[in-house]
Design brief:
The protein is of the alpha/beta class. It folds into two domains: 211 residues, Glycogen Phosphorylase B (Rossmann fold, 3-Layer(aba) Sandwich), CATH 3.40.50.2000; 113 residues, no CATH class. The strands form two sheets. It has an eight-stranded mixed beta sheet with strand order 1-2-4-3-5-6-7-8. A two-stranded antiparallel sheet has the order 9-10. Helix 3 packs across helix 6. The radius of gyration is 22 Å and the shape is globular. The chain starts with a strand and ends with a helix.
Length: 344
């Protein structure tokens, strides 16, 4: 699962998806929820009527959308839907622009897009659409994910597709930044047949409410990062990250050896282990993703004494003599630490 099918390097990649039977999550659902899920599968097959369901986003790895594609869409393929995944490619300048749009939608005070940015945005959209329209048949359903794909709405509509634009980001209250982002994006997306948002507060007031739906994010309880860990594996990961919360006396064998096997059979120490150990981790728990002002998970980034206390405390989290703030500059030392927690 997850192979890449090469295409025009300036346009799109198709990511191959496998399939998972819904039966593997049967034990996670009540009888009523299981029946609802089975009915949803029947309804989806009937609505599509043999047409393909496409999803287009801007990255094959990293980020919540890519994770949902890899872990959730295989279930619908096994249920009989022809569900396929395309990834839009662009230039570094394009992704710098879309990152600004992302931050503006969150209400962050970053530079507003200029008129000249429309040329870049539309050019990447045209390149992606030129490839997509050769794959998409009239009547297919295309879900375009987030601002990066907005310029594909109109070309795919002209090709006869049913186009749904989904926006995963937003702010609870409007400000100048949010309004600037929508001023840029709405001309591209307003022709979509439907819109999906995570929260009602994220919906711009100018959209037709009859075409707006709400869909909160979902997880796969069987994916690596959501599976329960045996005590030994959990302690090995903490030890590998340099956390003194896992003293060597807990082990009946070398914790480094166990942690190495967790990391895909590698026996070579992580290149960043020594750097992690130099940090003062005695009063905090490493987490499996980077810290950002727009992500406030409950407990996972807090100090051991504060885990489970909820959202961001004013002024940051006190950690002994250090302060642990929720800013974009505070990150785990390297990605290999994050990956060790989710790929046993």
């Amino acid at each position: 699962m997850g192979g890449v099918v090469p295409s025009d390097p300036a346009s799109l990649l198709e990511i191959e998806l496998g399939s998972y039977p819904f039966a593997r999550i049967r034990g996670e659902l009540s009888a009523g929820a299981w029946e609802q899920l089975m009915n949803a599968g029947e309804d989806a097959r009937a609505l599509l009527g043999g047409h393909t369901l496409w999803s287009i986003n801007s990255t094959a790895r990293g980020g919540g959308i890519a994770e949902m594609q890899r872990t959730l869409w295989p279930y619908w393929r096994d249920a009989g839907l022809d569900a396929r995944w395309l990834v839009l490619r662009g230039t570094p300048a394009f992704f710098r622009l879309t990152k600004r749009l992302h931050n503006l939608l969150h209400g962050s005070a970053v530079a507003h897009p200029a008129i000249s940015d429309h040329e870049l945005f539309a050019r990447v959209g045209r390149a992606g659409a030129a490839y997509a329209v050769d794959l998409v048949s009239p009547g297919d359903v295309v879900i375009l994910q987030d601002p990066q794909t907005a310029a594909l709405v109109a070309p795919l509509k002209r090709a006869g597709a049913v186009v749904v634009w989904r926006c995963h980001v937003g702010a609870d209250g409007p400000n100048d930044a949010v309004e600037a982002a929508w001023h840029f994006l709405l001309p591209y997306v307003e022709e979509a047949d439907a819109f999906i948002f995570t929260r009602r507060a994220f919906v711009p007031p100018t959209l037709d409410p009859r075409r707006v739906g709400l869909l909160t994010p979902a997880i796969d309880p069987c994916s690596y990062k959501n599976r329960g860990l045996e005590a030994g594996r959990g302690r090995a990961i903490l030890e590998r990250a340099g956390s003194p919360a896992s003293p060597a006396r807990w082990w009946s064998r070398s914790p480094a050896g166990i942690a190495s096997r967790i990391r895909s059979g590698s026996s070579k120490p992580s290149r960043c282990t020594s750097r992690i150990r130099e940090r003062h981790w005695s009063s905090r728990v490493p987490r499996s993703t980077r810290w950002r002002t727009t992500r406030r998970p409950v407990g996972s980034s807090l100090t051991p004494g504060q885990r489970g206390t909820g959202c961001r405390p004013p002024g940051g989290i006190a950690s002994g003599s250090r302060r642990c703030r929720w800013t974009t500059s505070r990150r785990m030392p390297c990605s290999s630490t994050r990956s060790s927690a989710r790929r046993p």
